[in-house]
Amino acid sequence: MLRHYTAAEVEAGLDYIRLIDALAESFRRGGEAMPVRQSYDVGTSDKPGHLLTMPAWERGKALGVKLVTVFPANASRGLGAVSSLYTLFDGTTGQPRAMIDGEALTNRRTVAASALASRYLSRPNSKTLLVIGTGRIAACLPAAHRAARPIERVLAWGRNPQRAQAFADTLSRQGFATEAVTDLPAATAAADIVSCATTSVEPIVLGRHLKPGTHLDLVGAFTPKMRESDDEAVCRSRVFVDTYGGALAEAGDLLQPIAAGRWDAARICGDLHELTSGARPGRLEESEITLFKSVGAASEDLAAASLLVGGWVSGTRQTAS
């Protein structure tokens, strides 16, 4: 029977430890088919709009597709620019099983992928997390990273100091020891993990501010024209990606230093499949700087949706013992 999952049910049904483990198993197997996402212009001359489709499937088990719309003019209507819906189908019969709030699913699996990478790339004793950005994905990052490392302190930075303070206050109410900061270089130097979730087209994290041993988690930039780090940050780091295909097609943080002749794609040290399968090592030394660049993968949506639907029976959430 087809079931609809609200954003609240997604958040309740996908606790981070189980979700991180599910993503790890999905990347380790590497068995999902995942075509390149398609983008279509569906807007008008005065009001642009785009439709994106992101399918993935594991033969005989499950298949799903995320539909995403991007309508930038929605701000004038008091609406968000991005909307999405995920549909999960049975992999044996093709019958629809679930329709899931796409934004909640995306936010949850995105930050869980960052936490999965952190398991391999950050220092095990990482306690201070700097979150750059004040949006919805940024708000999910502390809980996800705390599921992977013993985070005790969160520093919050945003371009608008008032929004950063409000963001920090919200995290404090959630139980995080959070401080809004205005001195970004000092906060970067103080952090064990720097997690950046913005839509910036100019570098925010500068390599000269990263201390030895830092793990840099770049979540936000997802087109070749966007970037959150400068060339020096990339050149100083051992670089890992979620998938080679996605990163080398969309990650401006990597494509721009490649185009400038400062860096080369051959220097990518591994992706999440290679990390989780043991084919490539993660962090090698206490003092090295590691960088994880994600742009998102449809296989993550499929793994998260399958975990969510499998965890509910007759409307009752099933939790791990």
From TrEMBL:
Identification of the protein by name: Ornithine cyclodeaminase
Alphabetized Pfam families for the sequence: OCD_Mu_crystall (PF02423)
Similarity-based family: Belongs to the ornithine cyclodeaminase/mu-crystallin family.
InterPro entries, sorted: NAD(P)-bd_dom_sf, ODC_Mu_crystall, ODC_N
Segments traversing the membrane: none
Xref: Gene3D superfamilies: NAD(P)-binding Rossmann-like Domain, ornithine cyclodeaminase, domain 1
Entry-linked NCBIfam families: PRK06141.1
Domain of life: Bacteria
